[in-house]
Amino acid sequence: MTTRTSLADLPCSVARTLDLIGDAWTVLILRDVFYGRRRFSEFADSLPIARNVLTHRLNALVAAGILRKVAYQERPLRHEYRLTDAGRDLFGVVLALARWGDQHITPAGQPAPVTFVHAVCGHDTHAEVVCAACGERLEPRDVRVRPNFGQDVPAVALAQD
Amino acid sequence: MTTRTSLADLPCSVARTLDLIGDAWTVLILRDVFYGRRRFSEFADSLPIARNVLTHRLNALVAAGILRKVAYQERPLRHEYRLTDAGRDLFGVVLALARWGDQHITPAGQPAPVTFVHAVCGHDTHAEVVCAACGERLEPRDVRVRPNFGQDVPAVALAQD
DNA sequence: TCAGCTCGGTTGCTTCATGCAACTCACTTG
DNA sequence: CAAGTGAGTTGCATGAAGCAACCGAGCTGA
């Protein structure tokens, strides 16, 4: 048999996270939820995803504790999908993906597909990934990795090139 | 036929980015490159990925302009895979994934699999996703979306719940 | 009252991608 | 000259994706 390899047991938070959301449809559903979409039909209308796959992904997201099902009416019983606290924390991941696409895929001279506005400061904005300690932007050359369980991750400095 | 749906044509930078790296193995290869790994055999040893799939993913990353192949010896000709500028800019995405896993998957009380150290400030650190304009952490409730091409993306405020 | 519509799925079918093991090719080393 | 190494390629079996059709509970309106 050939089940998709589980990444949950690797000693790496990136791998463990990807075990839950390492799938394009899953992330696009999350994007939709961040855009305010909640219902099966809204996702189905918004994304060119097969309905059976959508069912699978929504169930997996609920099982992962990223979305939760909330009834919005009885008779007929209907649910919508909302973010849990953990799901809300994925916002940064989605924004980081959007930022990369804006920089590296959107053709030069063209506007990005959408613009984000930060209501707190009022500016058009985009995500930046910074050091939680000093607030500087994190670059590969400046970050070292210290493994906490020995063997699996090399203690080498990150890429200088 | 049933080819995997292309996301490249959707009017969304998240979708377009996922069209290139919306696959768990792809992202784990990038993680490896950020950790300093460069060669086919290093990836193959580090990840439980099938070798044919590894070949596919590396070729796709090169085609996407995220990695480039550099010969490190002739006779026999051997290449290594290095980051392009675009690839280097994916560092933030990987760090954001690691951060989420550290917060939401690593069992409470246990240390994260790896700790990142920011050489610039000298502190143990983790990624934070902030507003490029004001430096505040970006939360779903504070961000509005303005579509630049009409129809496809709703102008609604992002999730309040 | 009954045909038709909506929502949120499920079922069947076909094709594609994945996982695995085995094999190849061009060298290098002992 | 036998064995090893790096970087793949090939073949096969199975699971997942895409698509279309179907379903059941309730509402709608003529």
Explain this structure to me?
The structure is a homodimer of 161-residue chains. By secondary structure, chain A is of the alpha+beta class. Chain A folds into two domains: 75 residues, Orthogonal Bundle (Arc Repressor Mutant, subunit A), CATH 1.10.10.10; 52 residues, no CATH class. Helices cover 36% and strands 19% of the residues of chain A. Chain A is built from six helices and six strands; from the N terminus they run H-H-H-H-E-E-H-H-E-E-E-E. Chain A has a two-stranded antiparallel ribbon with strand order 1-2. The longest helix of chain A is centred in the middle third of the chain and has 14 residues. Chain A starts with 12 loop residues before the first helix and ends in a 14-residue tail after the last strand. The C terminus of chain A is likely disordered. At the A-B interface, helix 1, helix 2, helix 6, strand 3 and strand 4 of A face helix 1, helix 2, helix 6, strand 3 and strand 4 of B. Chain A binds a DNA duplex (30 and 30 nucleotides) through helix 3 and helix 4.
Short description:
Two copies of one chain form a homodimer. The first copy, chain A, is an alpha+beta fold and 161 residues long.
- Report the count of strand segments of chain A: 6
Helix-strand string of chain A: HHHHEEHHEEEE
Largest sheet of chain A: 2 strands, antiparallel
End-to-end distance of chain A, in Å? Answer: 40 Å
Give the name of the CATH architecture of the largest domain in chain A.
Orthogonal Bundle
Q: Name the overall outline of chain A.
A: globular
Question: What is the residue-mean pLDDT of chain A, rounded to a whole number?
Answer: 92
Show unreliable segments of chain A.
151-161
Radius of gyration of chain A: 19 Å
Question: Which strand order do you get reading across the main beta sheet of chain A?
Answer: 1-2
CATH homologous superfamily placement of the largest domain in chain A:
Winged helix-like DNA-binding domain superfamily/Winged helix DNA-binding domain
**Which chain pair has the greatest contact?**
A-B, 92 and 93 residues
Task: Assign a percent range to the helix content of chain A.
Answer: 25-40%
Domains of chain A (count) = 2
Structural class of chain A: alpha+beta
Strand content of chain A: 15-25%
What oligomerization state is this entry in?
A: homodimer
Number of helices of chain A: 6
Task: Could you tell me the CATH topology label of the largest domain in chain A.
Answer: Arc Repressor Mutant, subunit A
Question: Given this structure, which CATH class of the largest domain in chain A is correct?
Answer: Mainly Alpha
